[in-house]
């Protein structure tokens, strides 16, 4: 079973926070932090909506590196070189120590290979679910648990995804983290695919 988590949805605009939070309606332990990354209270883990090469030089990734230091980007890139042969696939994520007291971990979870539009894709879902699985695997293996996880609006910068759609896909990933299947059949697969690709009756993700 998954470990219980406290999720923070982070954006400096309160109205955007409400848009994201509305998509998590009914899911436990979710709240919003209407502030910039560098003003976040202490937390166990921040999820970076990254690229496949660990180039953390723009957007919120740049704020993460400014806060934790250039050595964090070097550790991320070294892990990508060593563990992913130089390109971390979308749908994978890794927990990386920050060495910053009070803010011990980041999760590097690419939403895109290189900066560009991911509108109309399921990449926000894939990155969010990968981040949650990486946190789950960390918590299984480590005595130092990750309990408070901060997420930005995944894919809404260079990716061009609307805040509402990003929130929908992120919420779908969190719901599937909390409610993993206990067996496989095609009905279950079809339900999950519809959950990811449809906003109500409207298909918003192709393929």
UniProtKB/TrEMBL annotation:
Domain of life: Bacteria
PROSITE patterns named among the record's database cross-references: MACRO
SMART domains according to UniProt: A1pp (SM00506)
Signal peptide coordinates: none
Domain Macro: 1-207
InterPro entries: Macro_dom, Macro_dom-like, TFA_Chaperone
PANTHER family membership: PROPHAGE TAIL FIBER ASSEMBLY PROTEIN HOMOLOG TFAE-RELATED (PTHR34413:SF2), PROPHAGE TAIL FIBER ASSEMBLY PROTEIN HOMOLOG TFAE-RELATED-RELATED (PTHR34413)
Protein name, entry field: RNase III inhibitor
Source organism (scientific name): Blastopirellula retiformator
